[in-house]
Design goal:
Number of strands: 0
Radius of gyration: 31 Å
Shape: elongated
Strand content: under 5%
Number of helices: 9
């Protein structure tokens, strides 16, 4: 029952919005501005005591101009931010922005712990430790510590990238700011 009423409410809102959007002819017509001698204009000037600005040749389509495209060579802000949030540990956002220096740092920090885990599985170091806990050597301890440091560094670079892209402080590979159309 709730889904039906929610669907009907959403449909009613959609229809109301669709009916309130002006047609192309309404957008291209010049706005109707009363003359200074009309009673409406005289009453408005008495009540508000403000100047009446006449916009005779202004068309609504000229008044509403929105930048819809980014300059040639710049990268989209929202795409970079979404890539950094969801795939940031792999360096995907830096690759999208043509920042190959940060991409290589993020990708190495992402792939190196994976390689170290594979190394420990192949060599059987972890199995030897399970059988005899006293057999852990200094090299194995350093390797586990190194994996932890790499994991923390990956998280730090990921969060730093989100903050820098959100604030638009990180330029793309072309030296341009990220574009938000």
């Amino acid at each position: 029952m709730q889904r039906v009423s929610l669907s009907l409410l959403m449909a009613a809102c959609f229809i109301a919005v669709a009916l309130s959007v002006p047609t192309k002819d309404e957008w291209e017509e010049s706005p109707k501005i009363p003359s200074a001698d009309s009673p409406t204009a005289k009453q408005a000037s008495k009540q508000s005591k403000s100047a009446i600005i006449h916009l005779t040749d202004l068309k609504m389509k000229d008044a509403v101009q929105v930048q819809t495209e980014c300059p040639q060579g710049s990268h989209d802000y929202m795409t970079a931010l979404m890539l950094q949030i969801f795939l940031g540990v792999t360096g995907a956002a830096y690759g999208y922005m043509d920042r190959w220096d940060w991409f290589s740092v993020a990708f190495v920090l992402f792939i190196l712990p994976c390689c170290l885990c594979c190394y420990t599985l192949i060599t059987g170091v972890s199995n030897a430790f399970k059988e005899d806990p006293g057999s852990m050597t200094g090299l194995v301890l350093v390797m586990y510590l190194f994996k932890c440091v790499l994991f923390v560094a990956t998280i730090v670079i990921w969060i730093w990238g989100i903050v820098m892209i959100s604030n638009k402080d990180l330029d793309d590979g072309n030296g341009m700011k990220l574009c938000q159309p």
